[in-house]
Amino acid sequence: MRSALEQAGGRSFPALAMIRRALTEAGWDRSDVEGVAVGLGPGSYTGIRAALALAQGWFLARGVSVYGANSMDSVAARAWEMGLRGRVRVVVDAQRRELYVAGYELREEGWSQVEPLRLEGAEGLQGAADRGGWLWLGPEVVRWFPEGRVLGPSAVQVARLAVPAGPRPPNQWEPIYLRPVQFVKARSVPEGSL
Fold first, then answer.
1. Which 3-state string (H, E, C) describes 113-170?
2. Cβ distance 172 to 51 under 8 Å?
3. Which residues pair with 136 in a beta bridge?
């Protein structure tokens, strides 16, 4: 049976079910958790906000430490750990026919970012795909680059990147967005017009 939180508002919150399943598989209780690492994006606005909200809830309820890391870096770190070497570009769907993209160099001794995280038009990047000898990585990379390798962020890598930076209260972690967050207010409807 789902908890009230998992079914609040008639909607399911799969993240809570995933957390419960992970704790069960590990043989842990919620009180055993001492820290939470969060992928700060870039990515889905809703997903990043949900992750930060869950971390903040755990912090407020249990006093756990909260850590944060760049999700693109976690893909590069995962690729390096899997033995990939050379120049890679990590791409993530940013909607509006744009991609989040960052470039990394994966060497035997480690990996480093060589191009800053940015927002670019998918068509422009596709035109440049044949130049430079980059390997393209990302959770949905083959949508834009058929020769790319599908690879998403890893919770393990997020934690490995986040913990050395140290914990902070969750309200001090900033989601990584590369475009201004814009909300459109619904226009007023005169009374009695519905």
1. EEEEEEEEEHHHHHHHCCCCCCEEEECCHHHCCCCCEECCCCHHHHHHHHHHHCCCCH
2. no
3. 89
Is the domain of 86 the same as that of 129?
A: yes
> Do residue 134 and residue 93 come from a single domain?
yes
Q: Which residue type does 155 have?
A: A
Q: Which of 137, 87, 93 is nearest to 119 (CA)?
A: 93
pLDDT digits (tens, 9 = 90+) for 72-94: 999 999 999 999 999 999 999 99
Q: CA-to-CA distance for 95 and 46, rounded, in angstroms?
A: 13
Beta bridge partners of 99: 93, 120
- Cα 91 to the center of its chain, rounded Å: 12
Nearest to 149 by CA among 161, 141, 157: 141
The pair of three-digit structure tokens given for residue 17, joined into one six-digit string: 């079910």
Q: What is the pTM of this model?
A: 0.79
What CATH number does residue 50 fall under? 3.30.420.40
